[in-house]
Amino acid sequence: MKLKYSLISLVLLLGTSCNDGFLDRAPKDELSDVSFWKDGQDATKYTTGTYRYLIAPENHIIMTDCYTDNAVPVHVGAEQGQLSAGTATASNPHFKQVWQTAFDGIRRCEIYFSNIDQVVMNEEKKEVLTGEMEYLRAFFYATLVKYFGGVPILTHPLELNEPIPARDSEEAVYEFIVKELDKAAAKLPVQRTESGEIGRATKGAALSLKAKMSLYFHKYDVAAKTAKEVMDLGVYELFDNYGNLFLPEYENNKEVIFDRQYVQNAYNSTIGSLIDQYFGPLMMGGWEALSPTQDLVDAYPCTDGLSIKESKLYDPADPFKNRDPRLAFSILWDGQQIAGKTYDSKEMGNGNATRTGYSMRKYVNPKNDGNNEYGWTNFIYIRYADILLTYAEAKNELSGPDNSVYAAVNQVRQRPSVGLQPLPQGLSKEQMRAAIRLERRLEFTFEGIHLFDTRSWKTTEADVKKPVYGKLVDGKHIFVEQRSFNPEKDYLWGIPLTEIDLSKETLVQNPGY
Fold first, then answer.
1. Would you call 500 helix, strand, or coil by DSSP?
2. Which of 85, 241, 370, 398 minimizes the number of CB atoms within 10 Å of its CB?
3. What is the 3-state secondary structure (H, E, C) of 183-231?
4. Segments of the chain scoring below 50 in pLDDT
């Protein structure tokens, strides 16, 4: 079922989709005037509009795989090229875009909390809306702390010329996020059953974000406990077909915990997606902006669960045969079919095409061939597979690989469309850690998770410094580049230079910027 935005006095949605959803009822840009906050309709409109401040999937989530061993950007002279190469400065536009959008969302939350008490409406509905805003505020802070480290925790909407306060510590931001999510989880419904409500935050979304952030900060006891709470809700399960999980025909399925809703025939990129445009292959009218590495391709095991170095099923003469099906669901290589066309990398290296001979398939909608309209595939921020692997990783770090750890990992590996052999019994804690980390890398390729996993594991430096290779040409894998990584600087993004200047020296810049 499709949800739609209609941003009153900002965006007029001209197209249609399957059914009307909660995003039909969106607000004016600010709506902070006291004359507006009169009834439940006003409060609902304002809450709805806050969802459009969620982090953009294209440049700031999917593209982050280019800052790991999974991929490299095609447009090396652009902002993402600087980030990949380790040469970005505090003036990089991506820094400002993420920072500003998140704090704009936080400001909207603060305006809501300053006005909601005066609204006359059904109290149960008001409590749910407040839970949504607590969740969204936590989501915005979770975004900021992952990208920038500690940030200021705001307690009121800043006035026009009011300087932003000093940064709080990462630990303080984490604790604030958890408190907000605990409050939200107590208010939010377990499920959204009405079509007009699907896509709004739920109890499971709040618990899931708490589990994910606790894992990121190595709070393994909290992560395992909270992930288990999500598992015990009994409302989520793995979707059978891994490839279809990322197509619009199958959106809002039981694996999806929280996503960004898009619409077909969208008026602009607020309500329609640019994923197809950015990452689709050239032959579909896309920009092919992300090039998967040979290292990622080689990381996918064979169907027996063994690596290509170990498995007897691996055939160097036919290297894509008998491989983990997620490889073909995620990556395009020469000869693959998509949108009724055959992919080839003949334009490789021309500055606007793949640099490695591979391209991204996941999330590219075959029905948007030609890219004549904005994409309409929802982008999934949190899904159930992440909760299973979050539980497994946290539980393994706490007490080693017990049966519950094996069960969680094997559920993901043995999804019907994947069908890998279960992990071998008798793994040590260290062996299970390596298995889980690989499983996360392959399961969440191009979903904006791998960069932050490697930051949490402190492996980004080693991963980025691997030589980047591409497809076989004349019997050898082409060499693409050797990247640099400064561990004193590159584990965090720089605070935008404009924000440092506007803060009147209250904001302290991250090291190296």
1. helix
2. 370
3. HHHHHCCCCCCCCCCECECCHHHHHHHHHHHHHHCCCHHHHHHHHHHHH
4. 1-29
